[in-house]
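TA notes, week 10

Several of you asked for a full example with nothing omitted. So below is the full record: structure tokens for the whole chain, then the designed sequence directly under it. When grading your own attempts, check the secondary structure regions first.
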């Protein structure tokens, strides 16, 4: 045929920081290796390949032979290597210095490893804002690709999106390719011939066009049922056969060739945007429901193709509003980045700062900052991994600036960017963040020795897809389908596990309940809060003595119809591995009788494993960390995590009732709906009755000790009860 077009197949292979080795290995065997094996013999085909830094370095360590095979194809001009920020952050959430630093660092590494110039990049999650152009160009990048959804949102139409465009900011001009959503859904889920026919249609009205398919390489084998579909049933070979047979008019090309061989389609300024599904996930839950109801209603309308181009979802940054935990991680990352930049201007140890920079960049990996069809923020091992990197960077900065012995410090600043000051208590062993404006809660507790945030928790909250869980939709069959279309339940009875929290799952959250409340009432969200202390504003002041600091927080608030004053102190000493906690309640009426409970949560200590368990003061086990406990009276409880080497202990000078239970979410991932253990709640509580002076007090201590090897003698003592 006379009309010919180019087809650029762009694969994005990614595994997040903190993903399990066996998961990455499986993806390698299911996707990365078999795709390469099928592709190699087709001498006339070309692709562009982006491999994120976390995956690239894993491959370099575990499968260097794979990279050698890719290298050989690069030298034959059959694979174009695309760069990107090294640890796959969403660029819009980074300071400019970190955007440039991440891109430059990875581009240089790739050019050295694959012996080729690199001028193109993958845009993580295709999250775009116009100001990115001014940082991308100085990083040595000349072109990228975004979804055609971005271009439609700017007012362009499908038939116009047949080549790259130019966009400019602050005098910097970047080439941007539109990646076809239609191809994203055809490949590899429709028959190969449908893709060829779609390309033929485009060739008929836009000869010389460049069509771009840009999507996850994991959809060729790792996504559910796609290994059988792509390789065992031969979809990929059939597709490559058809591309080869039609190469007289349908030429596979790299983005670099398209830039060199064609002129831009024109200028464009793209709105702040991402791919269509991402904009839907970023909406608040009620607006997601409304969005999908409108789409379902209008899809049957003959005008839908025109209407669809004018409908937009939400904005990626609002994931930080939807999930306050994402905002906390983001703000911690910003703080570390700022402290690193400040240290660079001092006489700090440069070698330690270089290591801190790498940890910071790793802690910027995007996956636990949001949630959609992928588990994202609901996956504890990803949240823990990012915090591990940020805590490591923070500790290295302290060392680089001369803090390598026992010390203690306290600072106040608007750390979480809500225009209210938070308190940072830090020493050589830990960092604790307290939010007076949010119930005086302890919302981050970093243990330096194990580089772990014990409060990398998540609140149980409604999600739009919970409606499907309640309806109990059945699993699709074994045919391959896009993960956006699959409904799969990984456990039975998930509709019975939907529980929503009235307060964040943090520590030092102060509750008042009626007597008679049970652990099941609290665990399952059936309890009524009688006070207004859990999330309300506390006044704060600081006390400093040599080697010790204390934050004192106070609130005068309601408990039922009564007005009480709650004062709590949080103290930290130099070299200490624990926090000293004091509570004083004043104004208790003589006829009062109520439950006062202080909530603690501990994240990253999984349930259901025998080497993670509760124990008493004698070392006797009370069950693994998924156990629900209700103890009438105790002044001690311990939590062991042998894998982390972490021993958490709570003690009190006033015996308390103890409620302990797992906090579990029902969340969505690419594999389906699943129950995920998020944290362990430990809630000491006391029945308080009025006395003549109307006062009640307690002193507690909570510690987190890193034990390099938790001795088997402890385990032997723990097996007798259960």
């Amino acid at each position: 045929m006379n009309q010919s077009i180019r087809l650029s197949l762009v694969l994005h292979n990614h595994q997040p920081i903190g993903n399990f080795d066996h998961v990455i290995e499986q993806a390698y065997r299911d996707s990365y290796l078999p795709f390469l094996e099928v592709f190699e013999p087709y001498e006339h085909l070309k692709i562009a390949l982006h491999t994120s830094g976390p995956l690239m370095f894993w491959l370099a360590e575990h499968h260097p032979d794979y990279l050698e095979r890719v290298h050989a194809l690069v030298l034959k001009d059959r694979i174009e290597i695309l760069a990107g920020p090294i640890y796959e952050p969403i660029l819009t959430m980074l300071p400019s210095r970190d955007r440039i630093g991440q891109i430059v660092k990875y581009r240089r590494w790739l050019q050295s490893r694959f012996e080729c110039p690199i001028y193109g990049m993958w845009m993580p999650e295709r999250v775009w804002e116009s100001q990115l152009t001014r940082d991308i160009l100085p990083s040595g990048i000349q072109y990228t690709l975004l979804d055609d959804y971005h271009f439609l949102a700017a007012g362009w139409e499908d038939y116009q999106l047949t080549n790259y465009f130019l966009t400019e900011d602050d005098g910097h001009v970047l080439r941007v390719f539109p990646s076809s959503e239609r191809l994203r859904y055809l490949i590899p889920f429709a028959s190969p011939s449908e893709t060829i026919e779609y390309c033929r249609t485009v060739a008929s009205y836009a000869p010389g066009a460049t069509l771009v398919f840009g999507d996850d390489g994991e959809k060729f084998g790792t996504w559910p049922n796609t290994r059988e579909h792509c390789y065992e049933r031969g979809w990929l070979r059939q597709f490559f056969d058809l591309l080869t047979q039609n190469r007289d008019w349908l030429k596979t090309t790299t983005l670099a060739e398209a830039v060199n061989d064609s002129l831009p389609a024109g200028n464009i300024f793209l709105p702040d945007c991402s791919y269509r599904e991402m904009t839907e996930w970023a909406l608040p839950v009620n607006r997601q429901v409304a969005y999908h109801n409108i789409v379902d209603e209008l899809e049957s309308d003959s005008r839908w193709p025109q209407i669809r181009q004018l409908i937009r979802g939400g904005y990626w940054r609002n994931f930080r509003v939807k999930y306050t935990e994402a905002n906390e991680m983001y703000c911690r990352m910003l703080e570390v980045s700022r402290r690193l930049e400040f240290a660079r201007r001092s006489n700090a140890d440069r070698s330690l700062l270089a290591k801190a920079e790498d940890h910071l960049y790793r802690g910027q990996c995007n996956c636990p900052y949001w949630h959609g069809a992928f588990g994202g923020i609901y996956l504890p091992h990803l949240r823990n991994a990012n915090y591990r990197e940020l805590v490591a960077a923070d500790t290295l900065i302290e060392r680089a600036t001369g803090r390598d012995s026992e010390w203690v410090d306290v600072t106040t600043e608007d750390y979480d960017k809500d225009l209210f000051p938070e308190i940072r208590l830090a020493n050589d062993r830990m960092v604790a963040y307290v939010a007076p404006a949010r119930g005086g809660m302890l919302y981050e507790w970093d243990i330096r020795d194990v580089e772990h945030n014990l409060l990398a928790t998540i609140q149980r909250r409604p999600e739009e897809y919970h409606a499907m869980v309640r309806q109990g939709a059945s699993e699709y069959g074994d045919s391959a389908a896009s993960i956006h279309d699959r409904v799969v339940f990984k456990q039975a009875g998930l509709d019975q596990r939907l529980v929503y929290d009235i307060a964040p799952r943090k520590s030092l959250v102060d509750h008042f309940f009626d007597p008679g409340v049970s652990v099941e009432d609290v665990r399952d969200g059936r309890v009524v809060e009688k006070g207004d202390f859990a999330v309300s504003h506390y006044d704060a002041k600081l006390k400093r003595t040599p080697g010790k600091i204390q934050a004192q927080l106070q609130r005068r608030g309601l408990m039922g119809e009564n007005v009480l004053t709650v004062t709590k102190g949080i103290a930290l000493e130099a070299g200490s591995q624990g926090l000293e906690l004091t509570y004083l309640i004043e104004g208790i009426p003589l006829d009062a009788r109520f439950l006062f409970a202080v909530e603690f949560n501990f994240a990253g200590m999984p349930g259901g494993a025998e080497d993670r368990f509760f124990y008493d003061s004698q070392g006797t086990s009370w069950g693994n960390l998924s156990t629900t406990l209700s103890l009438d009276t105790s002044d001690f409880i311990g939590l062991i995590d042998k894998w982390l080497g972490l021993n958490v202990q709570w003690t009190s000078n006033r015996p308390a009732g103890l409620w302990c239970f797992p906090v579990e979410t029902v969340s969505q991932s690419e594999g389906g709906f699943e129950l995920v253990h998020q944290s362990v709640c430990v809630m000491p509580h006391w029945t308080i009755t009025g006395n003549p002076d109307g006062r009640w007090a307690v002193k507690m201590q909570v510690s987190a000790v890193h034990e390099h090897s938790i001795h088997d003698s402890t385990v032997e003592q723990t097996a007798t009860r259960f």
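The chain is about 30% helix and 30% strand. Use that as a sanity check on your answer.
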